[in-house]
Amino acid sequence: MQLSPILIAILFGLGAMIGWGSADFFAKKATEKVGYAISMFYMQTFGLIPLALIIILSPTIQIERISPSILVQISVFALVYIIAYLFLYLVFEKGKLSIVSPIGSTWSALSVFISVFIFKEPLNSWILIWLFVIIAGILILSTDIQALRKDIKNIKNLKAGVVFALLEAIIMGIYFPVYNHFLESLSLNTFYLLFIFRIFTTIFAFIYVKIKKISITKIDKQTLMLLLLIGFLDIFAYTSLTFGLALTPYTSIVTVLSATFTIPTIIFAKIFLKEKITKEQLVGIALIVAGIVFLVG
């Protein structure tokens, strides 16, 4: 049975969602112990392992010569990705979560806008309706209504972290449509591309750690194993997203579904930390599930 391009896009988008949602849950514990900079470095480094194994063990993947111009473009995407990652952590460090989290989650809507109106993605009105239902679900999931009502009374809270949240949303919203356009121009094997990309993100993460004068050796074995798991989950998510973009014309479907990664995080928190799922979260999850179901239909 041959899968439709829409279903392929949905499956790869959900793969990215599961990978990033799981990584985010475990990353919270790691960052509490060693900080976001060290977590970022080891996550990028460990993500190289599965890619290297796939390239070495696969008889169909050949080491290809890459032109300097392509290497420069890959390095730029890697640098922008790391910058967006840093902005994300600055958002959580500098701002009130109830205010900056909804702002940061708007990147998926910007991604849809750019994909449709600039890159002319072939989406009909039915798909667009359900994509925006999913985006509404994402916004609800990322918004703590009670905390927002409390924090918004203090005007100073609106300034802290909002700039970083806006920058993160703009960068991520532009990043994936442009990244998809870049993939369309390549004949490079996807796993090989991702391996080169990950080398650059690791280098940039290492440079950042050195600039901040943070030691990467003072880390216990348990945290190191946790970061190994996070690195594997993160590269699984990015690989799933990349294949979804490369194999289908539905950039918006892949990116919007990947942005629903809050769902696995909430589910893991419920299972392992016994955290209560709020009514708002249930509404958000219901909207996302409904949107996915109608996209499949």
Number of helices: 15
Instruction: Tell me roughly what share of residues is in helical segments.
Output: over 70%
Q: How large is the radius of gyration?
A: 19 Å
Order of helices and strands: HHHHHHHHHHHHHHH
The count of DSSP E runs of length 2 or more, i.e. the number of strands, is 0
Beta-strand residue percentage: under 5%
User: In angstroms, what separates the terminal alpha carbons?
Assistant: 17 Å
How many domains comprise the coordinates? Answer: 1
Mean pLDDT: 90
The largest sheet, given as strand count, sense and whether it forms a barrel, is: none
The poorly predicted ranges are none
Structural classification:
mainly alpha
What would the principal axes of the Cα set say about the shape? globular
Verbal overview:
It is a single chain. The chain has 297 residues and is mainly α. It has one domain (5-58, 66-296). It has helices spanning 5-34, 36-46, 48-57, 68-94, 97-104, 107-117, 125-141, 145-151, 155-159, 162-184, 190-211, 221-247, 251-258, 262-272, 279-296.
